[in-house]
Structures are given as C-alpha cells and as structure tokens.
Specification:
By secondary structure, the protein is α/β, with parallel strands linked by helices. About 40% of the residues lie in helices and about 25% in strands. It contains eight helices and 14 strands. Strands 2-1-3-6-7 form a five-stranded parallel sheet, sandwiched between helices. A four-stranded antiparallel sheet has the order 8-9-10-11, with helices on one face. Strand 10 and strand 11 form a beta hairpin. It is elongated and about 60 Å long.
C-alpha cells in the first residue's frame, strides 16, 4: 500500500516509516494537518495513519475535512487520548479504526491491513511470475526453476518492484522512491550495489538472465528477445 502518515513526532514517524517500509509499504510523511491534507488531495493513498494531536490542531479536524470533500480513504487514527469517549469520538468523526498510544507495531500493521481489506475486498495478488521466476507475496519466498532463492527483505522489495514493471525501464530515481522511500537522489551507489547482489542470486546460476542494465538510465526486468 501507499500510506500517508500524518505525525509530528519525528522519532515516532521514523519508526513507523521504517517498520511499514520493511513490511513492503510506501510511506509519505506530513508533520502537520495542513500538509497532510495537501498531500491527500494530490496523491491517491491506500490508507492514512493520522495522529490526533497535531501542532496545527486536532486530527479530528483533518478527518472532518477529508470526509467533507468526499475522500473515503481508510483512516487509522493514533492518539494518546485513549479513553472510551475519545475513541468513540474519533470513530464517529469518520475514522475507520482508532489505536491508543502506546501500541505494538504488529497490531498497527494488522489494523491497517484490516481497514484496507474492508475498503477493497478483492483478494490480493499472491504470486508474481516472470519466465521461470516466481515471487510468493504471501510467504515472501522466491523460486526459480523450482529452486528457492534466499533474499534479504530489501532485495525482495527490489525484485518485486522490478518484476511488477517487467518490460519497462525503471530509473534509479524510481527505485530510490519506490524501494528506499527517498524523495531525493543521494550521492550513493547503493542501488547499483543492491542490484548487483540481486542479480548474483537471480541470474548467476540460471538462464536466461532476467535483470538487465540500461546504461545511464536504470534497469529492466524481463527476457530479452
């Protein structure tokens, strides 16, 4: 999912971005309600995680504005205000779920998945295939010609990103944003190093090669004609 996180606590936001990223989600962060509303208007998010106590007002106001404009995106509200009346107020204000702080990250992840399923009951895609390569998105395993290939979490996300765009040229900027959640291009060879490691695992012992370098631009997954 692509998730909008509206949270002014920098440490909490960093923790959530890291955890959600490791779970395979992309995260955009806004530190104020106003910035969050602008992002929500510009981008089609799959879910919003909304802190109730924001520097420019109550998160309930953000929620009210979202619903008033007809935005039905699932919203999980977070708050240190966890009394029954406060939770009821949040749910009646348009939140799909309400989670009191402090919380276990695993619970937040499960609640996000639940509200997203309620919005779109279509079963998620379970397996991606490219030639003789299979990526199981449920078990998070990769096989080629029946042989399981052990990948690190970042390698798995990188491979999934490439295979979902098989046949297309994927630029380094697209990978930085889609896999690393960077919104800028740092002076680093992290992408080239990671792709090289991935290629060693995916292509070294198999034919034909599936990951190709497009010189000066990026990469493409697929079987060359």
């Amino acid at each position: 999912m692509r998730i909008l996180l509206i949270e002014d606590d920098g440490a909490a936001a960093q923790m959530l971005v890291q955890g959600l990223g490791e779970a395979g989600h992309g995260v955009d962060v806004a530190a104020t309600g106003c910035a969050g509303l602008e992002l929500a208007e510009a981008v089609a998010f799959d879910a919003i995680v909304l802190d109730r106590m924001l520097p420019d007002g109550d998160g309930l106001t953000v929620l009210t504005d979202l619903r008033a404009r007809g935005d039905t995106v699932p919203v999980l509200m977070l708050s240190a205000l966890g009394e029954v009346d406060q939770r009821v107020e949040g749910l009646q204000g348009g939140a799909d779920d309400y989670l009191a702080k402090p919380f276990a990250f695993r619970e937040l992840l499960a609640r996000l998945d639940a509200v997203a399923r309620r919005r779109d009951p279509t079963p998620p895609e379970a397996v991606l295939r490219l030639a003789d390569l299979e990526i199981n998105l449920i078990t998070r395993t990769v096989t080629r010609q029946g042989h399981e290939i052990a990948l690190q979490p970042r390698e798995f996300r990188l491979l999934e990103f490439l295979v979902r765009r098989a046949g297309q040229v994927v630029t380094r900027s697209m990978l930085l944003e889609g896999v690393w959640q960077y919104r800028f291009a740092p002076e680093t060879k992290v992408i080239d190093v990671q792709v090289s490691r991935l290629r060693q695992k995916i292509d070294r012992d198999f034919q034909p090669p599936l990951i190709h370098t497009i010189r000066g631009i990026g990469y493409r997954a697929g079987v060359l004609a």
